[in-house]
Amino acid sequence: MSHQRFEFVVIGGGPAGQKAAIQGAKAGHSVLLVDKMGHHGGECVHRGTIPSKTLRETALWISGYKQHAHLEEKVSCDRTVDNLMRRLDSVRTAHERFLEDQIERNGVERWHGRARFTGGHQVTVEAPGGPERTVEGDHFLIATGSRPRTPNNVPIDHEHILDSDSILSMIYLPTSIVVLGAGVIACEFASIFASLGVRVTMIDKSERPLGFMDEELVERFLAHFASLGGTFLQRRVIDRVEWNGTAVEARLEGGEVIRSEKMLCALGRVACVRDLNLDLLGVEVNERGVIPVDEFCRTSVPHVYAAGDSIGPPALAASSMEQGRRAARHALGLPDPKGSGVLPVGIYTIPEMASVGITEVQAMERSGEVLVGRADFAELARGQIVGDTEGMLKLVADPSGRELLGAHIVGVGATELIHVAQMAMVGGCDLESFVDNIFNFPTMAEAYRVAALQIVQAAPRELRRVS
Amino acid sequence: MSPESTTPLPEIVRAPLAERTSELSLELPMLPDTASRVMGLCTAEDCDVRELAELIERDPSLAGHVLRISNSAAFAPNEAIVSLQQAVTRLGFSVLSEIAVGVALRGQVFRVPGFDKTIRLMWMHSAAAGAFAKDIARTARRNVEGAFLCGLLHDVGKPIVLTNVLDVCKQARVRPNKPIVETALEEFHTTVGAMLVERWGLAPWVVAAAEHHHRPEEAGAHEVEANVTNLADALSHWALSTRDVGDPRTLPSVAALDLYDDDMVRIMAGREAVLELAAAFA
Questions:
Q1: Which residues of A touch B49 (CB under 8 A)?
Q2: Nearest to A415 by CA among A343, A375, A358, A355
Q3: Size of interface A-B (CB pairs under 8 A)
Q4: ipTM of the predicted structure?
């Protein structure tokens, strides 16, 4: 029996798979995209990034509204999440249509189904409803994403105890919610719900949330979270969780019990690789359940690539897209992309946070000496205008005060502002460039000039260009 | 799932029935008082479980039904539930309120004198659809809380249409035989059901599920809820053997909800528990 054959078979239709498929097709290769979801865009569009950011925009609008005392509006729990997310359909539809158009325009064939390897160069695709078909490929990309981790002592029922896949299926905003975890997803949802008037308790075993971020940013985030009525319980270990019929009970080691109307379990995600039958090919999966890859996203089997959440951190949509493109180009013999490797991180908490490069602590560990400049948004005219007096931009420079090693921002526009620092690092601009050049007034970007000036003035006099 | 093929209604029945079921002229029952108060309690910010138990206790028939359903396998009690307070503790506020709303509707809306058997089947079908809808929603990571009501009320227009078609036939001196009744039910129940739940002030997704459960693709923003209800409707018919729906795993709503064979096998394995729940509701 002959099977269809494609030069490039992409398994998974999220950010990594989508971009890889387009990249391959644009170069004139035959590409098949297999997606377990019927709609385009994967979890990112339907359960992850797009829906949560839409809810966040609403929360921002409401919290911004609240800053004007004369317009203050109470957000009560009878507000339906559906209403709060009423823009979601139009956002999702527009994004999905764009992706669908891209796939069709570039001649990518798309199958709705779950794929598993049934031969070295062969996968079988099971469509919802049962029918299967088999296809052969020269190269494969595994971009199957991840799913929420479900610890044994947290009985997720998607009704009272939810995970990040089901949290936005709630009809009503609860009066209270416990968020387990202190990573990106936990902090994003905790701050969104707190901004919407929900009583939020975040519980984690760590000392502080977002351990990989600059401590000063996290402190400001926590201060804002507390000002909204949120509580962060640090160094707590969950013994067990149960729904007692009227409330969710989080029983902590030591006997403490925290009750809430709902619970979000955000204790990490695991790569969706289990059902791919990777053993058949000998594709290595490490002890953390992710697929190790080389710089070209190639797995231990040369014609099989992997990208996105299936290869582990950073597991961000932006990095996944880049990995997908890189894998496709290498697999199909195209020139490798000339990316700098400078990766910005954006966290859509309220207030939002972003960073690029290394933190002050990392810089100290590296060279033992570091120069730091800070700009409080309260000192900026634009900061006062937009009502963000809590935000901050922090620049980290080498001891000479010339080389920008990292930038860290918390506050309005952080995820956009960070790209100024990213491009400065990619272009090799020194700190004095921020002082020498003109920024629009009034803008948040002025923070760069303020922070850079502090560093330049603190730098050894003999090394300064600007006095 | 598409409704069964039906023979055209005689115009002498269809025209007055269409006239009656137009929005302006249809007489619709009020939402039963107990159901209304239970729903009000559910959405209140300071909802109180004791208040719910007291509300149910005031209606002995309702209290009896609630206890019977609470003890069915669908809710899998480890030991028999013998009091409402115990039911509140074991099942929780939302489950208990769903049961109470269902029982209240059963007594006051699903009631057509002389058609007890038909109505009983309709109600069992609705209760089973509610239970399946919850499980489908849970599996598909969709809203679980709202799914039960979507399933329970998807055919709520049928008893209203049945009452009206009997009345129209009587006035037109036409015998309300099975094809006429079935055709009238299929043709009008979604419109009437949607009007009814909308007038009761229920959520837009419940209205959409009642109106579009045979054509989920037309449900716009509530296509997911309509698909969940469509599949729950089919599974209920499959479980109760009230209609040949073929293999439910091959229905378009299965693909629309991104459910796979293992998901469907697991949902369908709950058949016995759902049947027991449906019998308890009836």
A1: 245-246
A2: A355
A3: 80
A4: 0.82
